[in-house]
Amino acid sequence: AYRNTTGVARLGALVGSVTDLSVTLRRVNTSYGSPGTVSFHGVADDSLQTNALTFAGVRATSHVTDRLQTDVQFGSLDRTITFDNPTATGQAYDPFGFGANYLGDQVSIVGANGYQTTGRAILDYGGIYPSIFTSDTTRRYLSGRASYYVTSSLELSGGARAEREAGISGVSAKTVRTNAGAFVEARGSLLNRVYLTGGVGVEENGLFGRAVTPRIAVAFYGRNPTTSHTVVGETKLTFNLGRGVKAPSVLDEQSALYGLLGPGSGSTTSFRLAPIGPERSMNLDLGVEQVLVGGHVRLRLAYFGNRFTDLIEYVNKTTLPQLGVPIDVVGAVPFGATINASSYTARGVETAVDVQAGGFRLSGSYTFVDAEVTKSFSSSALTPVFNTSYPDIPIGQFSPLVGARPFRRPTHGGSVFASYTRARMQVSVAGVFVGKSDDSTFLSDAFFGTSMLLPNRDLNESYQTLNLSAAYQLHSRLRWYVTVENLLDQGYEAVIGFPSLPRTLRTGVSVALGGR
Asked: Mind giving me the DSSP string for 301-313?
């Protein structure tokens, strides 16, 4: 079951002659069942999750002069997440005398790679039920930015942000952070052919300290945009290079493996663990765009090379004792622990074509991604595991192995879009195509063994979806629309156990009231 109730209000007013003031309020409440991967267990868990989000913001945008623009914003965000597992689901089983875990039914799992296994997996672990986990996060922030046009070909921007963040998850003590950041950026052009953007941001985070994130972007027109209407039109070359950081969430910080082990423990030293910090990235892309046939055809080809480091990796609760975490601490941890231990590279090419003629438009894209894991805690500390049915194939149970592909990052992907617009009518078809990807079943059998695991490579099946939409303007204020999702009604269920939606039809009439 699923329920979503959302309320939104926005009020805007002109203050003086140069300032737009707006106030936004948003409240979202969701509640839904969380049955787990039913295809892995044969039965549905009775867990459920509720989320409550409240956002309030005030924003003032001012055109002080023709050259100077400012933007000041205050925001307040409160989020509560509650996960409730009322009872243990499945058959109680206690082969070691340490307390029962609960097994699902016997099932057979077949991966898209052709490997298969049959058995019973642990659905719910032993413990006290109902098992309730709650996470509360609040954030208050104030930000401001200004842009100044020095000349018609040079613009300078700068801004700053301050925020107060507090949160608590499970039975942990409250975490409070004070964060700040600032940036400067310059955007300029030369001879209407070269466009440059360069800037740097500085983050001062209450958890990990200071981080600097520079970025530069260049666009060069080998053929001037004024040639767009010739047979061979404008040619644009692009270059982008930058760094990025992402702060851990409050939940990630409070469930950090370093904190669970304790700074002075032997495991902290032997595994060379450090306090949890930011995830980092380095992003590079080079591209070329070509316009043809008087602007009716646009082609794009780009190469990207990205590196993601210090990614937060999840360590399952069942493996924490192997790392030296005391049993009583493991019992107090709701799910597992987190650590900055994963890194991978992703490079590849993106291609796109867009054709327009009369009321017709046809576009398509294709992306090839060559991604490889360069660091993983499960490889360096926990080592690979093996299913005795496939003794020569190492498996990453909870994280991908070094040298393999990241989970759920398909090598091949693409999309198509076709539309026709004429007078009051519009019809369009959109499709998405995704290739196979690596993954894990993440399962433990009745003896905490690996017999329910399958080789990671190409474990998830490829899939595609096709949607159809149409609209007709019955009147200047009356519009009829219809949408058909999953037009071909293709069933798909990945090995991760989430089924696709069946063909869905939506239709209605939109009415415009008031205004000029």
From this structure: EEEEEEEEEEEEE
